Fold these 2 entries.
Entry 1:
Amino acid sequence: MAGVLDLDQLKTFVAIVDEGSFTRAGDAVHKTQSAVSMQMRRLEERIGRAIFAKDGRQSRMTDDGERLLAYARRLIKLNDEALSMFDQKELIGRVRLGTPDDYADRFLPEILARFSRSHARAEATVVCAPSSMLMEMIEADELDLAIVTQPVRGRSDIEIIRREPLLWVGPQRGVTHELDPLPLALGRPTCTWRRQALEALEATGRSHRVLYSSYNSTAVSAAVLAGLAISVLPESALRPGMRALGTDEGLPSLPPCEIGILRSRQPATTVSDALAGHIVSSLDNLTNRPGLFGM
């Protein structure tokens, strides 16, 4: 198939998915609903496949649409990075970023690589610590930005950019979850996921004990992989050798995991805003999206 994909059409396509509606997507990209529909027809003609299918009065993304979505996001990001490389207002400065170690392992390499390519003369300093400590460092003006887990009771100053299921996890093979009392490997007492796990078990009366407690996610995961305990992790953090556990294994449901950005109370710099933008674009694309799109 020869030809070139139209970035404007791809941006409209992504807007439809993110906004959950052709109408709201039109508002986001400043186009009428008829213009949005026309762009999607032309995009389908370009790839020779249907990306939306009718489902009653709504439209549902097809399997081909799902495949195209991943490429669309990558192409848009690459376009933005290429343009920023030649921006005459090149960013110079330093930004201090805080993140828990498990987020650093999962998300940070891509974020920092993109930030470095876009702003080669800007410098990012990274501190790894639990969310509770990062919040204290923000209050003390020791960080400009922090990626944190949203506390149970919530904070209005945290911008939620990602939501995903929080799961009980155990070794791929074994019956650790059947032991009584239930052996647990969790974060330290200030950890939000630990608090949610213990509250859920106590609410159902399940006997349990915390055998391993650490700030380090690798240490907690090691106990799980060794079959010594079970733990709780966001869906995206499951590692090879682990499996998700749930109500079928007699474990209570858990609230979703919410990840957000916390910013310093000091005036934001252009460098910190630029890094925050990279963090948001990297993490928010896996926020739960509706499967149906209203016209």
Note: The chain is about 40% helix and 25% strand.
Entry 2:
Amino acid sequence: MLSWLVVGVGDITRKRVLPAILAESRSRLAGIVTRDPAKAEPYGVKSWSDLASALAESDATAVYIATPVFMHAAQTIEALRAGRHVLCEKPMALNYAEALAMQRASEDTRRTLGIAYYRRMYPKVDRARELMEAGVIGRPVFAEATAHDWFNPLGTSRAWLADPKQSGGGPLRDTGSHRIDLMNYLFGKPINAIGRMSTLVQPLEVEDNATVTIEYEGGVRGVVDVRWHSRVVRDEFRVRGTDGEIDLSPLNGPELVHPGGVERIAAPENLHYPCVEDFVSAIVRGILPRSYGESALAAEWVMEQVTP
């Protein structure tokens, strides 16, 4: 049984993280850290206003970090050093150096660090890997992902996303990190990355668009393009090989098109549940979760290469 302390109660926490923990049969909610105690009241558990007190007074064995990105590194390291396992929201940190410090803390304390790149757990992603390994598209050589939407967080509860000191950047770190991580998951070690970003339309301090090109050790080249200034919504993910193509577009939908036909493999209703379930299984079995600190470092490394 894993006893959870959840830090931060925003939209994702209320809609996905807390329901996932409450639904996971080997988990129990031990407490919540929030500046607003009223947010914890519906869950019937003790709350604290600061992490240090919660770590000292709770019996939690795992901590879910769901605060804005600028808090991830310090809170993760504090929890690891207090002997807790940690599952942290993405992106891992503000930059590669912070992320590396988190991973080193995990190694030093011998506690597990997971990162909530939940798209690694999509059943259709598993199926796409299976098809590629079976050679249905020959040798994979090129992959492309786009995440386009019209988004301006100013004046909303997510306004911190527009503050580079709190978020580290705009769509590159918000939606781009997911796609970069998924390419790393599918194609292995990135060995080179270049990119461009700019602020063209939205009146923000962070970029409103970014394009990244990644070269992989095995020869695959990936391109990730993310934008907050498109009134046409796109959520594309394709892998091209020497003999064909696998199309997972829209990435968040059930469709999977490949040379053998069309399949529909829906993701779970709560996208965070498989991530929480996988993390608990990893702790119980003494293995790494599917998305762990060292694996997530690769996405931070890529983003570091293209950030001015």
Note: The mean pLDDT is 97.
